[in-house]
Structures are given as structure tokens and as C-alpha cells.
From TrEMBL:
<dbReference type="GO" id="GO:0003777">
    <property type="term" value="F:microtubule motor activity"/>
</dbReference>
<feature type="coiled-coil region">
    <location>
        <begin position="573"/>
        <end position="751"/>
    </location>
</feature>
<dbReference type="InterPro" id="IPR019821">
    <property type="entry name" value="Kinesin_motor_CS"/>
</dbReference>
<dbReference type="GO" id="GO:0005737">
    <property type="term" value="C:cytoplasm"/>
</dbReference>
<dbReference type="GO" id="GO:0008017">
    <property type="term" value="F:microtubule binding"/>
</dbReference>
<dbReference type="GO" id="GO:0005856">
    <property type="term" value="C:cytoskeleton"/>
</dbReference>
<keyword id="KW-0597">Phosphoprotein</keyword>
<keyword id="KW-0963">Cytoplasm</keyword>
<dbReference type="Pfam" id="PF00225">
    <property type="entry name" value="Kinesin"/>
</dbReference>
<dbReference type="InterPro" id="IPR001683">
    <property type="entry name" value="PX_dom"/>
</dbReference>
<dbReference type="GO" id="GO:0035091">
    <property type="term" value="F:phosphatidylinositol binding"/>
</dbReference>
<protein>
    <recommendedName>
        <fullName>Kinesin family member 16B</fullName>
    </recommendedName>
</protein>
<keyword id="KW-0206">Cytoskeleton</keyword>
<dbReference type="GO" id="GO:0005524">
    <property type="term" value="F:ATP binding"/>
</dbReference>
<dbReference type="InterPro" id="IPR027417">
    <property type="entry name" value="P-loop_NTPase"/>
</dbReference>
<dbReference type="InterPro" id="IPR036871">
    <property type="entry name" value="PX_dom_sf"/>
</dbReference>
<feature type="coiled-coil region">
    <location>
        <begin position="1100"/>
        <end position="1147"/>
    </location>
</feature>
């Protein structure tokens, strides 16, 4: 800001005011300031919502943007005493997980940096040379999951301490350097990614949500003149600014797309212009909740960077993302299937005879839910086991599992070849007793073996200090030395108890302190001995070899001791000694060879250093010679050249100023005035007026549709009410007819004994038929169950074969990938085994296909047999019902009329109910149609309202942008003029200095004599020739340099093209592989579901059969009750008739003397008739003539139910009855009579399987049965 301002300066200052929109603003410069915002306050405002969104299943992203040194890394990472957003977020995440113990969870962490547009894994182990970090990870894009980094390590964590260790490890590996703006400037972008998965059962339904949290620490934007970057720092700054420019372009295009909404074609978003935007594709414009933190500097010298950062953030705020909850596809499918199951069950409404298609769909969905739920539960078994072992802090490290324990502990070292477990004993605060199981007191750690005492020793742990107290008479050794006194244990000690129990002592706290001290010593040695780096690399290797030798010697001694004490044979001991000696010689040979090669490498390195020093010395001499030649040149020519150069610079500067100013003024003129402005404003106002008119019309249409909907609904409700009244009337009529029918039926049965007997006979026939049906049904169900059991057993055998085949294929695949074959024969055997497994897979697939076809055929056959059987049973029972109805109709026309009236009334009632249902459907359709019209009108209305608001908003924003652009252009013009004046002033000063030097040179040259001038001329000619020679060499070097750069760029472009093509092919291969695996898995699931559905359908059929059986039993009981009632009524009538007959007989005897012979005969005849009637009614004594015949037999049924039935003709007096009975009924009667009358001769009844189809046997048995 200038010290003295003119009249226009105040107005120009007001034009520099900018307005930006933000959600939060924090001042974190001075802690003593009352407005100071701490890290805790920043996290409370930003981080709490992010944690909640992560638990709700959303993807979230936080990234900080700003110039270098403005506090991005401080905000995101912080330091140990004042952590930033990322550590606080992780801590809050685990705190909430600790409070919510009902869910299982998995957390995977990755940490990468983008350095010079190359990706590096910060959590991967460092290479041997820490100064040569490798950035070789490739970014690829999955068709469904989006961009990802190939081979990026993912670490599973279950505690905040584990994730904090990973953060510290990654931060230590980050690339930082010192610049003029910041002592520890981040030279790369860092992305800390957390994959948070949580699973639980909610009301018996699995729920799984996954959140991807990207916590991004961007490198700061910088300018080379301000940061003073040169060389490598300048290259890094260029890569940083390139990626940030790409990020700005992406944000601008996303903001424009969000402003334009769904109108027009969407602009292409160049995500792949940089690695940063490619990896943040979902976070910027996809499925994520994103928070951007803009860090700015309060210094006035950073005004331009601050303004750029705020514009950046303002554009980012205009982006509209639509995040959704990330739910597992299988879990979502399970939920949808359960909803479908609930809908299908509501359709069934408890009716077992519902359409089989609906039931089949229901069982299919239930089976699919069962299979998917089991797969989901199996997937989470590993997570549950990790949660159970939280005290040991199990974590995956590559293909291994690391046990992190915070307590001191002992790890058992066993020589048992059959031992496969890891023994770990925690040493908690207090006393830990160690002894054998023979001790009277229980021991905390039980050991066994030679020289083990019942109470062997005690380990005391107090305030972090662990001391071993041997008990007198026990054998205890530490690092091979026998101890008798209390000894303090330190990290890594080997403890031997007795002769065979060896343990390693670990103290995590002590190990951590030792690691820190070793790092400090390493850093100090690296600073004090920079030339001994290679020696420092050699010493660990030599110490490792020496340690291996020591371990071998210790193992040798241990084996010797154990061998002598455990009676190992001398031959085995000698072989072990020879093998150990052989290995020792091999290690010594390797150590000597390594030392010789290291000496040769050092000699070659010294030689290369000497050659390099010689070349540097030659280059220094050449530079000195060039400088000497340049100093001997005539200064007058250089002065003239400098003046000419200044003139050219002044002209170029003036021309640039003129062109830039003209362009800016022209742009301002275009912004301030254009001829179509009035026309555009009129068209916009006309459009707004049309939109308002359309909105009003839509509202009127909505009201009209609502009125019409209300009127139609009322009419249909009135119609429905009248139909309901009609249905009620028809129901009353039907009930009246039924009651009349029952009364008439009772009267008929009471008046006619023959009809009663025939009805009873029909009832008995129905009972027999139902009993036969039950027996046949049980036999058929047993047969079908055998077939289905065989199918299920075959299915299980196929599943076991698939499982065995998968295990063998995995074993052979691991062996082929490992490639460690001892011989060519073994490799050939492995390849042959691979071919055999492939053939076995083909055979198993063919067997599975054939079995599936056979299974379908069997199920279809069983279903057809079941359907035929059901139809046959229904037809037979219906025939009996029809016979009963015909019997009643033959004896009563009134019953026939009532029955016909009942059927007509039922049909009328069904028609009335159909009309009611049709009215309800019509009402629902009308309501749905009107609601659809209302929704469509509302949607059109909302669209018009949105267009109206969008039009007004775009008009305002366009005007605001135009004004801002004019102000920016005016400021830019002032900046150009100011820069031009400064440059012009510098040029004038340089011109004055050169003119003074020129006058001085001319004055000195006039004083020299002509001989000196000739000598100078000769020297100048020589110098000119040398200069031409140097210029030629320089041009050659420049051409070679350009050629080298061209070749390098061509090679890089070819490499990039090749990498892109290879990545494309790999993506295609991976996608096809994923698709094939998915299809195979889907086929397996479909086959399992199909089998489950078939089993469910069969079980459902069996259940329906059982329910029908229960219904038949219930009907049978009701019929028996009815028959008993009729029998009791019949008996009462008989008793009344007996009483009347006895009274008549008494009266006849009293007046016997007064009657004539004819009257006596009439009385005797009447008495005989009454006696015969009594005998027929009571069956108290057998009739005079009784004849039973079995004249013939008939073949009934079909298939397995094929059987013979005998016609039995019973004659009593003048009346006869004919009934059909099966062979089994004769056998039951015969067995019952044998028990009651032992004198009856026994008949030999052949078995049913032989009898029921043999006509000859049936004919022979007819006479015997008679």
C-alpha cells in the first residue's frame, strides 16, 4: 500500500472487497487471543459430524487446502501434545465402538503419498537405502468400485494405539524439505484412508454397512520466487502446482454442473489429469460427504495466495454431492427378500390350498435368505474371533498374524515336532507361581519334564519390574547361566526351567524404550560418521551372522544337554553334531565370501570417487579458463551489447503493456456494454412470467383433480355400502335355507328306518374309504421320503466332492505359485495332478448336471403322483357325498328343492361378493389414478418452481460475476502499469550505469598508444576465435541436450502409453475374472436354493396332507357323534314302541274271554307282526332266516393301491343288503373273533404283498371267507 494516496485510491480500495461464503471460521494465530480456536474446538465443529456420518454408513472425506506454511499439516495431523483432526477422528471412532459393543466391526487402514505424480505406500517397510524411496505403485480403476491403488497395503487394526502407531510410521516416511516459506514443508500429498465396516443383527435380519474415510493432507501451493525453490525443490513445486491446478479445474467443472442441474449436457470432468483427482473422484463428485478446510495466512504479502485459496474453497462449496448409505449387496438382497416373503405370506392368509406358484415363490425366497444369511455369518466369523482375542491385540501383517500384548509375558519355545500351538503366559501384577501338577497348591503356570519341582520358582511383577525367584533345589537358568538368587528379567532373556522348558521373556514397554534409544544412537552415528554408511550397513549383517553362529552353538549345547539327559541314542546325537558342524562351516564360508565381496565393492567405490574427483578438477580448470578469456575481452563491446539489450527490453516491455492494456480495456467494454442486454432482460422477464402462469395453472388443475377424486370416491362408497347390505341379506337367506334343510333332514331320518340305515352304511363306507386313504397315504409318503432322502444324500456327496476338489486345487495352486520343486520329476507330477484335477472338475460338473436333471424328473414324478392321488381321493369321497345326497333326494322332494335353493343362494352370494370386490378394486384404481395425476401435476409444479428459482439465481449470479470480473480487470490494469513503471525505472538506472562505464573506457583507450592498440587488436582477434570455438562447442552441447530431452520425452510417452494399455488389459482381465467368479457363485447359490425349495415344497405338501387328515378325523368324529345321537333317538323310539305293545298285550289278555275266534286270530296275527317288527328294530335276537354269501369279487384301485374287494350279500327274511369289504377287514374280524371265541378254527391269511394281485388266490379264498 503506498504511503501517499491520490483521490482515486480510496475508491479502488473499496473495489478490492471480496465476499465469500463459509460454514465456520477459526483464528489460530495467537493462543493469548480471546478468539483463539484450539484443535479441540475445530474437531468439535467439523469432526463430530464426520464420525456420525461414518457410523451411519456414508463415505466421508476431509481435506485441507492452502499455500505452503499456512497450517494444513498442523490442522490435519498436529503433533503429539496437540493432535489434529486425523488422530482425534480415529480416537473418537474407537471410543464410540467401545460404547457400542453390540456390533461387530472391521477397520482397515492405508496411508499413501503422491510425490511428483507417483504413488508411494507409507506403511510398507523401507528399503535398504532410505535415501532412495521407491514410488512405484500404480493407480487403476475397477468397473464397479472405482479408482484404487494396486498393491497398496491394508492393515487391520482393533485399537487406537495400533492406528496411532501406523500414523507415526507413515508420517516418519513422508517426504518433507525446507523452503523459504516453511522449514518442514510437505513435498507431497498424503491420503490416510480408513475402511470402516460394521455388522449386526437387527430383529433377526443381518445389517452390514461400510464407510470409506479419506483424510487428505495436501501439499501447499507455492511460488518459486517466494519459496526460493531451485533444483529438486523446484521440480517438486511444479508437480504440486500441476496437481492442484487439476484439482481446481475439476472443482470448477463440478460446481458448474451442480449449478446447471440436470439441464443441458454435462461437461467432461478431467479426473485423470492428475493422480490426486483420480483417487479423490468419489470424494469430490460422487458418493461422499466432503469437508474442505481452507488455511490462509494473515500476512499482507500473501494477499494473492489468500484470495486464490478463498476462491478455490468457494467453488468447492458450490459442489452438490448426493451421498448414500453403503450397504452390503447381500444384506440388501436379504432385506428385500424378507419384505417379499412378508408380502407373500400376507397373500396366503393362512389358506393351505393357495396357489402352488405363490407357495413355491415363498419357499424359494426363504431358501435364498437362509443361504445368504449363512454366507454372511460365515464371513464375519473371523472378525468375531478377533474381537474375542482383543486382549492379545491380534492384527494381520501380510499373510501372518502378529500378537501385540501390552503386558510382560513369556513365550514357550518347544522342541516338540508335533506341537502346532503358540504358548503365551501373561505376567500380571503380583506373584506368578510356576511348578508341576504334583504340587499341593494350584500353580499359575504348569510345567513338566526332567528336574521339574512341584513348586519350581516364582515370578514377581511390581511397578514394571519383573524378578525371577528360584526356589531352593530347583534348576533355573537365564541365558544358559544357572541362577540361585533373585534375578531381574530384561527384554529378550531366555529362561530355562528344569531341562526341557524354555521360555523367552518379552516386555513391550522395555522393548519400546530400547527401540527409541537405538534410533537415537543410529541418528547420532549417521550425523557424526557420514562416510561410514556402508560400514554401518555391513555391521548389522555381520552381527546377524555372528548371532546366527551363537544360536547354532547354543542350539548345539542345548541338543547335547538334552540328548544326554533324555537318553537320545548316540547315533542320532552324532548325526545332529555333523549336521550342525556342516551348517556352521557353510555360514563361515558365506561370511568370508560376503566380506571379500564387500572389500571389492569398497575398492571399486574408491576408484569411482577418484575418477569423479579428476573429472571435477578438469571441469574446474575449464571454467577458470573460460572466465579468464571472458575477462580479457574488450569491455567496450560488452557495454554496447548491454545498452542494445536494454533498448530491446524496453521496447518489448512497452509493447506487452500496450497489448495487455488494450485486451483488458476491450474485455471491460464488452462486459459493461453489449447491444443484446435489453433483449436478454426482456426475454428473461417473459420466461419468468410464463413460469409463474404455468405454476398457477398447475395448482388449479390439482384442485380440480382433487374435487373429482372426492366425488368419485363418495359415489363408489355409497355403491359399496348398498352392496354390503345386499350381501348381508343374502347371507341371512342362506342361513335360513340351511336351517330348514337340516330340520327336514332330521325329520326324514326319524321317520324312515331304512333311510337311516342306508345313511349309516354310507357313513361307514366313508370311514372305511378314509382309513384306506390314510394307509395308502402313509405308504406313498414313506416311498417318496425314501426317494428324497436318497437325492439329499447324493447332493451331500456331491458337495463333499466339490469341497475336496477345491482343497486339492488350492493346494496344487499354492505349490505351483511357490515354484520350489526339488526336482523336474516333482514338477511334472504337480502338472499331471493339475490336469487330473481339471478332468475331475469336468466329470464332477457333468455328474452334477445329470443328477440335477434326474432330481427334477423324480420331483416332477412325485408331484404328478401326488396330484393324481389327491384327485382320486377327492373323486371317491365326492361320489359318496353324491350318493348320500341322491338318497335323500329320492325320499324327499322338499330336500331336493331346498338343496337347489341353497346352491342358487350360494351362487347369488358369490356374485354379490364379486360385485363388492369389483367395486373395491374400482375404488382403489380410481384413487390410485387420481393420486397419480396429482403426483404428476405436483412434480411438474415443483419442476417449474425449480426452473423459476434457477432462472432468478442464474440472473443474479451472472450479474455478480460480471461486476467481479470488471473489478478484477481494473485491478489487473493497475498492476500492469505499476509493474511497467518499476521495470522501466530499473532499465533507466542500468542504462545510466552502462553509459558511465562507456565514457570511462573511451577515456582510457584514448590515452594508450597505437602499439598497445595493435597488441590489443591481435589479442581481441585471438579471443574472438576462441569465443567462436566455445560458441560452437556450446551449440553442439545444446543440440545434444535437446536430442537427449526429446528421446527421453519420447521414451516416457511410450512408457506411459504402454502402462495405460497394460492397465486397461489388466482391468479387463480382472473384471472378467470377477464376473466369472460371481456367475459361478450365483450358480452354486441357485442350485442350493433350488434344492431347498424342492424340499420345502415337499414338506409343505406333507403338511397339507397332515392338515387334511386332521380335518377328516374331525369330520369323522362329528359324524360319529351324529350317528350316536341318531342311535339314541332310535333306541328311545323303540322303547316307546315296546311299552305300547306291552300295554296292548295286557289289555288283550284282560278281555280274552269276550272275543270271538276270528278276533282272537286277528289279535294273534297282529301280535306276531309286532314281534317281528320288534326283532327287526332291536336286533336283540337273530331273525328266523339269516343267509350270508360271498358271490364274487372285484379289482379296485390302481398302481400300488391295486386291491380286491369282496361283495358280501346278507339276507334276513325278505330283506337283503350288499356291501363291499377289503381282505384286510376280514382279517381284522377273524382276529377279533379268535380272541373272543377260541374254538373257531384259524384261517391262514397270506401276506398282502402276495395276495392283493393274485386272482387265483383271491378265488380260492372266496369260499373260505364265506
Amino acid at each position: 500500500v503506498p504511503d501517499h494516496r491520490g483521490e482515486g485510491d480510496s475508491a479502488r480500495e473499496q473495489l478490492k472487497i471480496r465476499e465469500f461464503t463459509f460454514d465456520h471460521s477459526f483464528w489460530s494465530l495467537d493462543e493469548d487471543d480471546s478468539n483463539f480456536a484450539s484443535q479441540e474446538k475445530v474437531f468439535a465443529a467439523l469432526g463430530e459430524d464426520v464420525v456420525s456420518s461414518a457410523f451411519d454408513g456414508y463415505n466421508v472425506c476431509i481435506f485441507a487446502y492452502g499455500q505452503t506454511g499456512s497450517g494444513k499439516t498442523h490442522t490435519m495431523m498436529g503433533y503429539e501434545d496437540d493432535p489434529g483432526l486425523i488422530p482425534r477422528f480415529c480416537n473418537a471412532l474407537f471410543c464410540r465402538l467401545h460404547d457400542n459393543s453390540s456390533a461387530s466391526y472391521q477397520i482397515h487402514v492405508s496411508y499413501l503419498e503422491i510425490y511428483n505424480e507417483k504413488v508411494r505406500d507409507l506403511l510398507r517397510g523401507s528399503s535398504l537405502d532410505s535415501n532412495k524411496s521407491v514410488h512405484n505403485l500404480r493407480v487403476r480403476e475397477h468397473p464397479r468400485d472405482g479408482p484404487y491403488v494396486q498393491d497398496l497395503s491394508k492393515h487391520s487394526v482393533i485399537s487406537y494405539e495400533a492406528i496411532a502407531n501406523l500414523m507415526n510410521k507413515g508420517n516418519a516416511n513422508r517426504t518433507t524439505a525446507a523452503t523459504n516459506m516453511n522449514d518442514v514443508s510437505s513435498r507431497s500429498h498424503a491420503i490416510f484412508t480408513i475402511i470402516f465396516t460394521q455388522a449386526r443383527f437387527l430383529d433377526g435380519v443381518p445389517s452390514e454397512r461400510q464407510s470409506k474415510i479419506n483424510l487428505v493432507d495436501l501439499a501447499g501451493s507455492e511460488r518459486a520466487d517466494a519459496s526460493g525453490a531451485t533444483g529438486q525443490r523446484l521440480k517438486e513445486g511444479g508437480s504440486i502446482n500441476k496437481s492442484l491446478v487439476s484439482l481446481g479445474n475439476v472443482i470448477s467443472l463440478l460446481a458448474e454442473r451442480s449449478e446447471n442441474g440436470t439441464k443441458g449436457r454435462h461437461a467432461f470432468i478431467p479426473y485423470r489429469d492428475s493422480v490426486l483427482t483420480w483417487l479423490l473422484k468419489d470424494s469430490l463428485g460422487g458418493n461422499a460427504k466432503t469437508v474442505m478446510i481452507a488455511t490462509i495466512s494473515p500476512a499482507d504479502v500473501n494477499y494473492g495466495e489468500t484470495l486464490s485459496t478463498l476462491r478455490y474453497a468457494n467453488r468447492a462449496k458450490n459442489i452438490i454431492n448426493r451421498p448414500t448409505v453403503n450397504e452390503d449387496a447381500n444384506v440388501k438382497l436379504i432385506r428385500e427378500l424378507r419384505e417379499e416373503i412378508a408380502r407373500l405370506r400376507s397373500l396366503l392368509e393362512g389358506n393351505v390350498d393357495t396357489s402352488p406358484r405363490v407357495q413355491e415363490k415363498l419357499h424359494e425366497n426363504e431358501a435364498r435368505v437362509k443361504v445368504l444369511t449363512e454366507e454372511w455369518a460365515e464371513k464375519w466369523n473371523e472378525s468375531a474371533s478377533l474381537m474375542r482375542e482383543k486382549s492379545l491385540a491380534l492384527r494381520h501383517e501380510g499373510v501372518g498374524v502378529v500378537l501385540d500384548s501390552t503386558l510382560p509375558h513369556l513365550i514357550g519355545i518347544s522342541d516338540d515336532l508335533l506341537s502346532t500351538g503358540v504358548m503365551l503366559f501373561h505376567l500380571k501384577e503380583g506373584i506368578t507361581k510356576i511348578g508341576s501338577d504334583e504340587s499341593d497348591e494350584p500353580q499359575d503356570i504348569t510345567i513338566s519334564g526332567a528336574n521339574v519341582e512341584p513348586e519350581h520358582c516364582v515370578i514377581e511383577h511390581k511397578d514394571g519390574v519383573v524378578v525371577l525367584h528360584p526356589i531352593e533345589g530347583s534348576l533355573c537358568a537365564i541365558n544358559g547361566q544357572v541362577v540361585k538368587e533373585p534375578t531381574r528379567l530384561t527384554q529378550g532373556m531366555l529362561i530355562t526351567l528344569g531341562q526341557t522348558n524354555v521360555y523367552r521373556y518379552n516386555n513391550p514397554e522395555e522393548a519400546r524404550e530400547m527401540k527409541k534409544s537405538m534410533q537415537v544412537r543410529k541418528s547420532v552415528s549417521a550425523l557424526s560418521l557420514p562416510q561410514g554408511e556402508h560400514n554401518s550397513m555391513i555391521s548389522p549383517r555381520l552381527s546377524l551372522l555372528s548371532q546366527s553362529m551363537s544360536d547354532l552353538y547354543r542350539s548345539n549345547e542345548s541338543l547335547a544337554l538334552n540328548g544326554s539327559l533324555m537318553d537320545i541314542s548316540s547315533t542320532t546325537y552324532r548325526e545332529d553334531q555333523e549336521e550342525l558342524e556342516h551348517k556352521r562351516l557353510e555360514i563361515m564360508d558365506l561370511e568370508n565370501r560376503y566380506t571379500e565381496r564387500e572389500k571389492e565393492r569398497q575398492a571399486e567405490e574408491e576408484q569411482i570417487k577418484e575418477e569423479l574427483e579428476n573429472y571435477m578438477e578438469k571441469l574446474r580448470h575449464l571454467n577458470e579458463e573460460i572466465e579468464y578469456v571472458r575477462s580479457k575481452k574488450n569491455p567496450y563491446n560488452s557495454i554496447v551489447d548491454g545498452l542494445r539489450q536494454l533498448d530491446r527490453q524496453e521496447e518489448e516491455l512497452l509493447e506487452d503493456l500496450r497489448i495487455s492494456k488494450e485486451n483488458l480495456l476491450e474485455e471491460i467494454e464488452n462486459l459493461t456494454w453489449f447491444p443484446d442486454q435489453v433483449t436478454e432482460e426482456e426475454s428473461i422477464s417473459q420466461v419468468i412470467h410464463d413460469l409463474e402462469r404455468q405454476i398457477t395453472e398447475k395448482n388449479e388443475q390439482i384442485q380440480q383433480v382433487r374435487r373429482a377424486s372426492t366425488s368419485s370416491r363418495l359415489q363408489l362408497e355409497d355403491k359399496e355400502k348398498s352392496l354390503q347390505e345386499k350381501v348381508a341379506t343374502e347371507v341371512e337367506k342362506l342361513e335360513t335355507l340351511k336351517s330348514q334343510y337340516e330340520m327336514e333332514k332330521k325329520d326324514l331320518l326319524a321317520s324312515s328306518e331304512n333311510i337311516l340305515h342306508e345313511v349309516q352304511d354310507l357313513a361307514l363306507r366313508e370311514e372305511d374309504l378314509l382309513a384306506q386313504h390314510e394307509v395308502a397315504s402313509e405308504e406313498k409318503n414313506a416311498q417318496w421320503k425314501v426317494v428324497l432322502d436318497e437325492l439329499n444324500e447324493h447332493t451331500s456327496r456331491i458337495e463333499e466332492a466339490w469341497h475336496d476338489l477345491g482343497e486339492n486345487e488350492a493346494r496344487v495352486k499354492r505349490k505351483m505359485q511357490k515354484g520350489s520343486f526339488s526336482s523336474v520329476q516333482e514338477k511334472l507330477e504337480c502338472e499331471a495332478e493339475t490336469q487330473q484335477l481339471a478332468e475331475a472338475r469336468k466329470l464332477l460338473e457333468e455328474e452334477e448336471k445329470n443328477f440335477a436333471e434326474r432330481q427334477q424328473e423324480e420331483v416332477a414324478r412325485i408331484e404328478s403322483e401326488l396330484e393324481v392321488w389327491e384327485r382320486q381321493k377327492a373323486a371317491e369321497i365326492e361320489a359318496l357325498h353324491l350318493a348320500r345326497r341322491e338318497l335323500l333326494w329320492q325320499n324327499s322332494d322338499k330336500l331336493r328343492q331346498l338343496d337347489e335353493q341353497i346352491e342358487e343362494q350360494k351362487q347369488v352370494l358369490v356374485n354379490a361378493k364379486d360385485e363388492v370386490m369389483q367395486v373395491n378394486q374400482e375404488k382403489a384404481a380410481v384413487i390410485k389414478e387420481f393420486q397419480k395425476q396429482i403426483d404428476a401435476l405436483k412434480e411438474e409444479n415443483s419442476v417449474l418452481t425449480g426452473e423459476l428459482e434457477e432462472m432468478e439465481k442464474r440472473t443474479e449470479e451472472k450479474e455478480s460475476r460480471r461486476k467481479d470480473k470488471i473489478v478484477e480487470l481494473e485491478v489487473e490494469i493497475e498492476t500492469l502499469e505499476h509493474t511497467y513503471n518499476l521495470n522501466l525505472e530499473e532499465i533507466q538506472n542500468e542504462r545510466m550505469r552502462l553509459v558511465g562505464l562507456q565514457e570511462e573506457v573511451l577515456r582510457k583507450s584514448s590515452l594508450e598508444d597505437s602499439g598497445e592498440q595493435n597488441r590489443l587488436f591481435n589479442v581481441s582477434q585471438q579471443l574472438k576465435a576462441q569465443r567462436e570455438d566455445l560458441d560452437t562447442r556450446q551449440k553442439d552441447l545444446e543440440s545434444l541436450q535437446k536430442e537427449l530431452e526429446a528421446k527421453t520425452s519420447e521414451l516416457e510417452s511410450r512408457q506411459v502409453k504402454f502402462d495405460e494399455e497394460r492397465e486397461t488389459q489388466l482391468d479387463k482381465i480382472e473384471y472378467e475374472k470377477f464376473r466369472l467368479l460371481d456367475m459361478e457363485r450365483q450358480d452354486r447359490v441357485n442350485s442350493l436354493v433350488e434344492q431347498e425349495v424342492k424340499c420345502r415344497l415337499f414338506e409343505e405338501k406333507l403338511e397339507r396332507e397332515r392338515l387334511r387328515k386332521l380335518e377328516r378325523e374331525k369330520d369323522k368324529q362329528e359324524r360319529e357323534k351324529e350317528i350316536q345321537r341318531l342311535k339314541s333317538l332310535h333306541q328311545r323310539e323303540i322303547n316307546q314302541l315296546k311299552a305300547k305293545l306291552e300295554m296292548s298285550n295286557n289289555r288283550a289278555l284282560a278281555s280274552g274271554n269276550r272275543v270271538t275266534r276270528s278276533q282272537s286270530c286277528e289279535m294273534i296275527t297282529s301280535t306276531d307282526q309286532r314281534k317281528n317288527l320288534i326283532r327287526q328294530l332291536t336286533f336283540a335276537e337273530p331273525p328266523a332266516v339269516l343267509n350270508i354269501e360271498v358271490p364274487t369279487f372285484v379289482l379296485r384301485g390302481s398302481g400300488r393301491d391295486l386291491h380286491y374287494e369282496y361283495l358280501i350279500k346278507v339276507t334276513i327274511g325278505d330283506e337283503s343288503w350288499c356291501i363291499f369289504r377289503r381282505y384286510s377287514r376280514f382279517r381284522e374280524m377273524h382276529n377279533a373273533l379268535k380272541k373272543k371265541y377260541p374254538v373257531i378254527n384259524q384261517l391262514v391269511f397270506p401276506p398282502r404283498r402276495f395276495f392283493h394281485k393274485n386272482k387265483k388266490v383271491a378265488a380260492e379264498r372266496r369260499t373260505l371267507l364265506e
